[in-house]
Every structure is written in structure tokens, then in C-alpha cells.
């Protein structure tokens, strides 16, 4: 894994081998950020990275100028790694060790962009719960974007506010955007 662009372009992200993660590939991450570059000024948005794992996505947002990032994961090793990298590279990332569903039920903040990369073996109901909680609790600002990464075996196009699904290798990104 590496940082694709920004102030830390080309830097390698080398997490400990014992973390239970499936990082977004560099190819998929680069394609996603090509889309997001046309929609956001990264230095002006609040980002929520759910099931953050290695912090791969959070670190990419930070390298591109985002200074308001919250990364949530339940694994202490993941949170420790994200915190250490953020400190080492002087990034403004708040790393939260918490079950993502509990976080979504209790968070009071709003975000412009929410990226969720849950384990692919979650049930379809759990994938739907991510979407439901984000919209029921108004965690996304009215013009915000929710992106859920999932396997090609999962179809999430039936969820409200769905605008598109993009496929990169074996991963898909489903995009949801509310009307302003």
C-alpha cells in the first residue's frame, strides 16, 4: 500500500502483519480518488472512515489536505497503527476504537463524506444497517456522500439515495447522495 497523491505521495504504508484487514487496493483507491477529486475540496470537508483497518483511506485523505478525519475501528492494533502514522506524518486524524455500529448509534457529528469498508462477510442486513444508521441519524450533511465498499456478490443498489456503483477488480464502491 502507498499514498497515491498529495503531500506524502509515494510513501509506503506498512502495517503490522497481525492486523485483521483487507485493505483497499491501490488501483481501486486511485480510481475512487479520481472520482472524488471532481466533487470535493479535501481541505474543506469532514471525513468519516468506518471499519478503517490500516487507515489506508484516512491517510490518503490527509495527504490530500483533509484536516478533519475520524477513523473508526474496533481492533486496538488498527487504531494504534493509525494513531502512530498520523503522529509520524503530522496528520489530523482522530482514531476511535469502537464498534462501528455503536459509533453510528451515538455519534453527534456530521460529515461531508463517509467511507465504509466493512468486512465482506457481514450479512446483507448489516450492510443495510450502515446505510440506515447514517441516514436515520443524519450523520451525513444534506449534500454529503456515503460510499460503501463491498464484494461483487453483494448488491446494494436497492438502498435509498443510490446514485451509482463502480467496480474495480473484485471490489465495488456503491455511492449514495442525498438531495440538498
Overview of this protein structure:
By secondary structure, the protein is of the alpha/beta class. It has five helices and seven strands, in the order αβαβαβαβαβββ. It has a single domain (37-177), classed as Vaccinia Virus protein VP39 (Rossmann fold, 3-Layer(aba) Sandwich), CATH 3.40.50. The chain has a seven-stranded mixed beta sheet with strand order 3-2-1-4-5-7-6, sandwiched between helices. The termini are far apart. The mean pLDDT is 94.
Q: Helices, strands, pairings?
A:
Layout: H1 26-36, E1 46-50, H2 56-63, E2 68-73, H3 76-88, E3 93-97, H4 100-106, E4 111-116, H5 124-136, E5 140-151, E6 162-168, E7 171-177
Parallel strand pairs: 1-2, 1-4, 2-3, 4-5
Antiparallel strand pairs: 5-7, 6-7
Give the uncertain stretches in residue-range form: none
Give the H and E element order: HEHEHEHEHEEE
What's the level 1 CATH class?
A: Alpha Beta
Give the name of the CATH architecture: 3-Layer(aba) Sandwich
Give the count of helical stretches: 5
Radius of gyration: 15 Å
User: What portion of residues belong to β-strands?
Assistant: 25-35%
The overall number of domains is 1
In spatial order, strands of the major sheet run 3-2-1-4-5-7-6
Q: Total strand count, please?
A: 7
Q: What is the CATH homology-level superfamily?
A: Vaccinia Virus protein VP39
Structural class: alpha/beta
Please estimate the helix content: 25-40%
Globally, the shape reads globular
Amino acid at each position: 500500500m502507498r499514498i497515491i497523491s498529495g503531500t506524502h505521495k509515494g510513501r509506503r504504508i506498512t502495517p503490522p502483519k497481525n492486523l485483521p484487514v483487507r485493505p483497499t487496493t491501490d488501483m481501486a483507491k486511485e480510481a475512487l480518488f479520481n472520482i472524488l477529486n471532481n466533487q470535493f475540496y479535501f481541505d474543506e470537508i469532514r471525513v468519516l472512515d468506518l471499519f478503517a483497518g490500516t487507515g489506508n483511506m484516512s491517510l490518503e485523505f490527509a495527504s490530500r489536505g483533509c484536516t478533519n478525519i475520524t477513523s473508526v475501528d474496533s481492533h486496538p492494533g488498527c487504531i494504534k497503527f493509525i494513531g502512530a502514522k498520523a503522529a509520524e506524518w503530522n496528520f489530523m486524524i482522530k482514531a476511535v476504537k469502537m464498534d462501528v455500529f455503536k459509533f453510528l448509534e451515538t455519534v453527534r457529528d456530521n460529515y461531508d463524506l463517509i467511507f465504509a469498508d466493512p468486512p465482506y462477510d457481514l450479512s446483507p442486513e448489516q450492510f443495510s444497517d450502515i446505510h440506515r444508521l447514517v441516514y436515520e441519524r443524519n450523520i451525513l450533511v444534506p449534500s454529503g456522500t456515503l460510499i460503501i465498499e463491498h464484494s461483487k456478490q453483494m448488491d446494494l443498489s436497492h438502498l435509498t439515495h443510490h446514485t451509482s456503483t463502480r467496480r474495480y477488480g473484485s471490489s465495488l464502491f456503491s455511492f449514495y447522495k442525498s438531495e440538498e
